[in-house]
Each structure stands twice: as structure tokens, then as C-alpha cells.
Design goal:
This protein is an all-alpha fold and about 140 residues long. The protein is built from seven helices and no strands.
Length: about 140
């Protein structure tokens, strides 16, 4: 995974739309916690047409679905969990600018939650924490 510093975020995210820039930075903020990859984020944002909310949704939905597809093909549970967490965050980002009455919001929110829960289930740290709680070591 590629990590990016906060100062680099401002100059790296190539959106000329201030509100898109803000949400892209928000997506990047979860990279230290396996919720985003800076290369994937910058790639998605660079394809969004300035000021075009439908383009925003399309690019992030595509990234989320692609990342989920990759996760489904991974055998390593930790890698799969990390990819699912990224897919969840990207789908949340895709949903962000949809109008309140847009029927796609329900689907986006549902997939984001499902992928988030699945991502957590694959993260071995939670298995380790459960063992520590049960055994005290």
C-alpha cells in the first residue's frame, strides 16, 4: 500500500473542484488504517470531470467494485480484509454526493456496510484481540 503525507495530499489530489478535493482528502485519511490506497484514490479523482457529481459517483463506484472484485480473488485473509475495507470506503465515497432521493444511495450504503463488516472479519488483529481477551495473554 502506498502512504502519502498530509502535506502531499493537498498537491497530489488533482481535483479542480474544491468540494471534490475535500472528499478525496477525506478518503485518503483512512489510508493509515487500510481504508484507502493513495494511488487508487488519485487515479479515481483524476478521472472525475470537474464539478460533475455523476462523474464522481461513476469513478468511485467503479474503483469500489473493482477493489471488491480483487478482494474476492485473494486467498490471504489479511490482504482480502484490507481490500474489502478499501472497497467499503470507496463505495461510501461514491455515495457521498448522490441526491437524497437517489435510489442508488441504498445500494451503495448496503454494499459499503457489507464490505466493511467482511473486511473486519478477515483482519487477523481481531482474532488476536479475541485470544488475548479469552486467555489474558
Amino acid at each position: 500500500m502506498t502512504h502519502i503525507s498530509e502535506s502531499d495530499m493537498r498537491s497530489t489530489v488533482p481535483s479542480r473542484t474544491p468540494t471534490f478535493h475535500l472528499e478525496a482528502v477525506r478518503a485518503l485519511w483512512s489510508s493509515p488504517f487500510d481504508g484507502a490506497d493513495s494511488g487508487e484514490v488519485v487515479s479515481a479523482v483524476s478521472r472525475v470531470r470537474p464539478g460533475d457529481f455523476e462523474s464522481w459517483h461513476r469513478q468511485w463506484d467503479h474503483l469500489a467494485t473493482t477493489t471488491w472484485g480483487r478482494a474476492e480473488r485473494l486467498n490471504d485473509p489479511v490482504s482480502r480484509g484490507k481490500a474489502l475495507l478499501r472497497a467499503s470506503n470507496y463505495m461510501r465515497t461514491a455515495e457521498f454526493y448522490l441526491a437524497s432521493g437517489d435510489p442508488r444511495r441504498v445500494d451503495c450504503a448496503s454494499r459499503s456496510r457489507t464490505w466493511f463488516d467482511a473486511g473486519l472479519a478477515h483482519e487477523v488483529i481481531f482474532d488476536w484481540l479475541s485470544t488475548v481477551k479469552e486467555t489474558g495473554r
